[in-house]
Amino acid sequence: MDTIEEVVEKILESKYCIAFTGSGISVESGIPSFRGPNGLWKKYRPEELATPQAFSRDPIRVWEWYKWRMELIFKAKPNPAHRVLAELERLGFLKCIITQNIDDLHRLAGSKCIVELHGNIKRARCISCGYRVTWNKPPEEIPPHCPRCNSLLRPDVVWFGEELPRDQWMKALEHTNKADLVLVIGTSGVVYPAAMIPYIVKENGGIVVEINIEDTALTNIADYILRGRAGEILESIYRVLKQRIERL
Ligand code: BJW
Ligand code: ZN
After folding, report:
1. What is the total count of domains within the chain?
2. Can you give the CATH number for the domain in which 248 is found?
3. Domain, as residue range, for 137
4. Are 123 and 176 members of one domain?
5. 147-189: per-residue pLDDT in tens?
6. What's the CATH code of the domain at 127?
């Protein structure tokens, strides 16, 4: 285990620090992660819900699952981990967040530079004409239809076997290739191509810091490992960093 103080020193020395976040950062906001003992995949089979084939087979079932998750997400508030990342960006210590999350909590916490690799659950798009809608509450009608052409709408998220939104992936690569430090927070690091992000930073000679309650597929490339809940670890990082900059 490494110390908060060491990681804070590295953040202060870095020129381009980014964060790469996964569902574990939102667990403290009441949103379940995917894998692990309390994960969504314990109860639901991904291939029955998070694939384009599942949607063609049974759009109502897929929409019911997304509607249930939207109800949780619309109620959720950013937790200290989201808020500290927003504050680090405001202070100039964090340049951008690359997130796999679809829950919008980084934006609600006040972060400005956010790359969403897997879409956003508050949006839907038409399967025929591509028209996008943004909601401020879950849809009442299931399955919802396109206001423009009346075809089915689908959640504007990335399912297994689908390509990531090209503009978001290009932006992610731009930030990643500039980064000399990446904070990898609350992700199992098993889903590709997203999980390439920390590998690219490492290959470019940058530092990888892992913040997670347990070991992951990315632990072996981490230069610093902080074990614990994201909210608690990031609050400690913020406290130590504030003390350090007030002494400067
Ligand atoms: C805490 C905590 C606390 C808990 N504090 N920590 C290469 C090799 C093998 C397979 C592939 C490959 N390349 C592509 C693939 C296939 C596939 C893939 O990666 N499969 C693997 C799973 C085997 N990838 C794809 O299909 C991707 N598309 C693609 O590659 O297209 C290419 C293509 C080419 C040509 C033609 C067509 C396509 C798309 C992947 C889309 C992933 N989508 C999902 C669903 C999004 C929508 C939705 O939410 O419904 O994205 S799956 C799910 O996993 C979701 C997440 O963003 C993603 C990552 O999960 P995450 O965030 O890491 O969560 P968990 O649960 O895994 O981990 C939580 C972590 O938090 C744990 O470590 C806990 O310990 C920790 N934790 N509490 C800190 N309080
Ligand atoms: Zn349409």
Report:
1. 2
2. 3.40.50.1220
3. 32-75+119-157
4. no
5. 999 999 999 999 999 999 999 999 999 999 999 999 999 999 9
6. 3.30.1600.10
- Known active-site residue 118: yes
The separation between CA 161 and the C-alpha centre of its own chain, rounded to angstroms, equals 19
Q: What does pTM read for this prediction?
A: 0.97
Does ligand 1 lie within 6 Å of residue 188's CB atom? yes
> Of these residues, 82, 118, 145, 175, which one is catalytic?
118
Whether residue 104 sits in one domain with residue 175: yes
- Our answer on whether the CB atom of 24 is closer than 6 Å to any ligand 1 atom is yes
Of 16, 4, 22, 19, residue with least CA distance to 204:
16
Taking only the tens place, the pLDDT of each residue in 8-48 is 999 999 999 999 999 999 999 999 999 987 888 888 888 78
CB atoms within 10 A of CB 196: 15
Closest CA to 217 of 247, 245, 194: 194
